[in-house]
Each structure stands twice: as C-alpha cells, then as structure tokens.
Request: fold
Amino acid sequence: MIVRATLALLGLFGLLISLLFTLVYYGKMRADTPALPRICRLDNAECESLIRRSEAHLVGIPNFVVGLCFYIAIIAFALMPPGAAPLLERTLLMASGGTVTIGIFLTYVLLVRLRTNCVLCLTSHLINACVFGLLLFLAET
Reply:
C-alpha cells in the first residue's frame, strides 16, 4: 500500500514538472514566473533553450509531453488494486527502464556538455529512477 501511494505521489510530482515544461514550451507560461517556488524557476531564455534542444525530443515529440502520458499511466496504475493490470505493469516497467537510461544520457548532457543546473530536469530524472525502483519492487513481490 505504501509503495503504491509513493508511486502515485512520485507520478503526481513528475506530472506537474512535465506540465510546467509543456506550458512553457507552448508559450502558455514563463519559466521564471513568480507563481513557482524560487528553486523551480529558471531564467526563461535558459529554459527555452533547454526544452527546444534536440535532446529534449524523443522521435520528434518533446520528452515532457511523453512524460505527461507516462506519469498519468503511473498514477492510474498505482491507484489500481494489485494484480489488476499485469500487462500495464510490465509495459510501465519496460518504459520506466527506458526513462532511466535516457535520463542518464540527459543528465550527462545537462551537467557536462551544457553545464546547466536545471533543478526540475534533475528532479524529474530522480523521480524516474525512483519510479523504476518501485516498479521493480512491485514486480518482485
């Protein structure tokens, strides 16, 4: 029960980060808006340059838009009774493993090549790693 609740909470945080990047990307919100906690704010130009990079797009689709779908699926799965959707569980486990792999590369690009400290980007990669760990735990039990 605690694992699924944690999974849902992580999914919610990931969904909010993906939503923020999506709103910034489509010009519906600024990354430096005072409505965001200070730690979450990026200079708007810096954020724009990050989210428009080729690395921020998976087969032409922005990673954070894919993230919206992924996190909604994670939340839905976490709210289901155990064993209710074994195919969804396996699919999410594989997708989650992929997000961790991609996240390692994106973290490298962010920190080493771009020398940028995007707290929300790094937080989303950490969330993805935790989600993967929790899904692995559920698969073992």
Q: What stands out?
A: The domain at 2-140 is CATH 1.20.1440.130 (de novo design (two linked rop proteins)). The first helix runs from residue 2 to 25. The chain has one domain: 2-140.
